[in-house]
């Protein structure tokens, strides 16, 4: 069965195809709305070494006095790794107030350079940019605090500076479209299969009916007469008239206007009725007329 056959079956049995496609479209739309959109963007910052203060000269000896500065975090890369751990912690999420929301934050460092990439996600593009701005500002405070707690002097503390500005906000919810598309494709496949199945079943049924009608012989005259006698087909052939049941009426049957022998007669009405003048010839005149006709007329 090729694609055109399936398409033809789906079009012929549209009363099967359309409801299934409509249901699939509704489910796909609901699944699309059920998944909240997620947007993402990132920003990069770098950890810089402390600013070297200007040298201090001893006025008595004229020698340069080296200030005493110490920092337990040896190098900016180590300070960047510690900062990333702090930003990824749940305590920082509680501190920023997005621990119970759909917003997420991920900080990743480069193994060779003290560069920190901060990736944020939120429900809207504006919320993503706002989150990146707040996290970058708060990260500088976190870097200063954990150095102070470790005993680093003021002049030896590392500082944070922006490296790459925020990138374009992107929609990172492809599963939202994949789920809706998958439901739509499955719905169309089910509709095509159902329409094809119904079409094949109806075609086979019609073929069996045609074959049975072709194999059945036409009814004979005896079967037709038997069916008629048994109360079957009593349809009259055009042009024939069915004889009425019961005895035929006699020609001299009395009509409604003519009185019967048993009906009473009104003699008085008959005597009073006017009579036409009828001239009856005499008997001798009739005999003379019969004599004049001769033998031919006598026959």
In a nutshell, what does this entry contain?
This protein is α+β, with helices and mostly antiparallel strands. 49% of the residues lie in helices and 12% in strands. It has helices spanning 3-12, 14-34, 76-87, 90-96, 125-149, 174-215, 221-229, 267-272, 283-292, 294-298, and strands at 39-48, 56-57, 64-65, 104-109, 115-122, 159-164, 170-171.
Descriptive notes:
- The chain has 299 residues and is of the alpha+beta class.
- The protein is 49% helix and 12% strand.
- It has ten helices and seven strands.
- It has helices at residues 3-12, 14-34, 76-87, 90-96, 125-149, 174-215, 221-229, 267-272, 283-292, 294-298, and strands spanning 39-48, 56-57, 64-65, 104-109, 115-122, 159-164, 170-171.
- The strands form two sheets. Strands 1, 4, 5, 6 and 7 form a five-stranded antiparallel β-sheet that branches.
- A hairpin with a 6-residue loop joins strand 2 and strand 3 (64-65).
- Helix 1 (3-12) crosses helix 6 and helix 2 (14-34) packs antiparallel against helix 6.
- It is rod-shaped and about 150 Å long.
- It starts with a helix and ends with a helix.
- Residues 263-286 have a biased composition (Basic and acidic residues).
- Keywords: Membrane, Transmembrane, Transmembrane helix.
- Residues 226-252 have a biased composition (Low complexity).
